[in-house]
Here is the input.
Amino acid sequence: MEKYILTFALLIFELIAHGQIYYPLPNNNALWRVSYYDGAFCNGSYPSAELQYESAGDTTINSLTYHKYIKSGVNLQVCYPYPLSAIYYIRDDTTAKKIYLFYNGVDSLLYDFTLQPGDTISGFLVSSAYYLCQFSLYNTLRIKSIDSVMVGSKYHRRWNIADSCVQQRSYIEGIGSNAGLVESYFTFERGSYLDCFSINGQNLFPDTNASCYPLSTGELASTVQGKLSFYPNPLTSSSTLQLNTQLKDAEVVIYDVVGKEILSKKLTGSKMEIEKGSLESGVYFVRVRSEERQSAGGRIRCGEWVEKLVVE
Here is the structure.
């Protein structure tokens, strides 16, 4: 009997200890696979897509370190409403236990791991997730409960969301949400689900016995896969914006560090010149967004890239 009591006590101690450990987002060799679905019939089909996010090292913005995560995907049916290619800059404040997304020049709260049951959820995933449910418009989400879930061989804390329209939604330390890395909690008629999360090729969540592979080159061939760069960077008089893919009528927008739009142009081709002109010295972010609707094998070509440009 004493042996069982001791074992039980050790188990309780382990669970409590795990609850005190904060697990940050991984910034190397991590992979998120996400499935998107849409119940709205569109152009003869129900939209769906297979997406992935891969960690791609760090960068510095306003003297703060951000992790880079590259999104790519395959549009299985027409009408997927979001870019299949994008780069996200995410900062993990391990002291405050909060995660921020720097997107379009704005630093927005992504996940808050200090909330308690009953607290209201705020930030990027809520402000971008107005949704219709029971014929009323809501955008207030609250924490229902906090528990732990096994990620690989360790317990990570999980925040469960209380709302009838975000069924079984939650977010987890070291992973993001069970909707994906930066996907909305939205679930009315459409939404997304985290299929798997792996580090160094090892599937850690939700099923460690299942495979979690990146999308193949062949699968990604029909999407716009490109890399955005500038030369020279820093810019002194002019700089060339260069993509390694051809675009048509893409939108190029330059933002300052507080998210104010400074300049907007159209790009057809793979490069364009950016003149210093009235740009003051400082750090800017350039977003290129393509929404080509020419399909290849039934898949829409679209993409979004964001990169830092320094002006001297």
